Amino acid sequence: MQIWVDADACPNVIKDILFRAAERQQIEVILVANQPLRVPRSPFIKTKQVGAGFDVADNYIAQTVQVDDLVITADIPLAAQVIERQAHALNPRGEFYTPENMRERLRMRNLMEELRSSGTITGGGPPALNQQDRQAFANQLDRFLARYVKAKIAKSAAENN
Fold first, then answer.
1. Which one of 69, 114, 122, 138 has the largest count of C-beta atoms within 10 Å of its C-beta?
2. Which residues, 6+ apart, have CB-to-CB distance to 85 below 8 Å?
3. Where are the beta strands (DSSP E) in 60-144?
4. Rounded to whole angstroms, how far apart are CA atoms 90 and 152?
5. Confidence of residue 151 (pLDDT cuts 50, 70, 90)
6. 10-14, Cβ contacts within 8 angstroms, sequence gap of 24 or more
7. Across the beta sheet with 45-49, what order do the strands follow?
8. How far apart are CA 30 and CA 48, in angstroms?
9. pTM (2 decimals)?
10. pLDDT in tens, 62-108
């Protein structure tokens, strides 16, 4: 299992949480962006710089993610592709995307995009991440990784029997 990060728009505070988790759990975290990134030196933290362009990083993640990997993204279309590939998607506010909530999120995104392009809604965007959002993200990540470690131990025990 790997953790993929849609790093172009990922808040630094979320990256820091992921860096600590990578070290603690010894799980590979790969940050994908279309610009160079500075990350701590670690065998568990890697970067992948992709070419410039709209959705290039998203497309790379969508094509590379494997079953049961975790993707950190606020991009709803990317999350939908990740779920189709039977991987997991978590946004920086600590909300998991699921097959059940994905249709509604895509509909809402498309509606908002339509309203913005018609000029009905201007500006906006999500509010800045607050302490509650950071805590929700850290908690969800910890729960996810605990389930992963537990499953890995169970699989190892089954193979040894």
1. 69
2. 62, 65, 66, 67
3. 70-72, 88-90, 96-97
4. 20
5. confident
6. 10/72, 10/73, 10/74, 10/92, 11/92, 11/129, 13/129, 13/134, 14/72, 14/92, 14/129, 14/134, 14/137
7. 45-49, 29-33, 3-6, 70-72, 88-90, 96-97
8. 7
9. 0.85
10. 999 999 999 999 998 999 999 999 999 999 999 999 988 777 776 77
Here the tokens at position 108 are 């809402």
Using CB atoms within 10 A of its CB, is residue 73 exposed (0-12), middle (13-18) or buried (19+)?
buried
CB 58 within 8 A of CB 76: no
Token pair in block for residue 109: 């995104």
| Nearest to 68, CA basis, from 83, 86, 81 | 86
DSSP letter (8 states) at residue 67: T
Asked if residue 47 lies in contact with residue 24, where contact means CB atoms within 8 angstroms, the answer is no
Pick from 108, 92, 84, 80: which is nearest to 3 by CA? 92
Q: Residue 158: CB partners within 8 Å, gap ≥ 6? A: none
